[in-house]
Description:
There is one protein chain. The chain has about 160 residues and is mainly β. It has two domains: about 10-60, no CATH class; about 95-155. Helix content is about 0%, strand content about 45%. Strands 7, 8, 9, 10 and 11 form a five-stranded antiparallel beta sheet that branches. A four-stranded mixed beta sheet has the order 1-2-3-4, with no helix packed on it. Strand 8 (about 115-120) and strand 9 form a beta hairpin.
Amino acid sequence: MAQLIKLKRTSVEGKAPSTSNLQLGELAINTYDGRIFFEKNDGSSTIQQIVTTDSITTGSFTLTATGSFGRVIGSIGSTNGVVSGSSQITDLTTHKETVTGASSYTVDHNLGEQYPIVQAWNTATSKQELPNSITTNSSNRVTVDFSTTFAGIIIVKK
């Protein structure tokens, strides 16, 4: 026989449980806001929220990621200064170009980014080199100038 599991729940906008409402290991859901809660106890009991799509999460969190995000579109904001601004990550986030034997390179990256991150790697020494200057010509083109002849890889990122 199938079992039906029902969580503690409310459909009242903005309502969240307190530590007196939940036992350790118990979940609660706000069906109006699409938020899921649980009690955390690392020496003191607190109510934590599981981050879900299309919901508002308050408080602070650390996001550590490796690998590829694929296609993510959204905004990131904070009132405590930890994270601010907005972000749009699309399938095309990095442009890599191999260059040889000049002190100035114009890179057409087609990332649509007015202020890209630019790195230069010397492939002979496997060390990063700092350009003399980086000029944004447009949201799809940068010019990278070196004090000497450079050979290696220039990476432009959103």
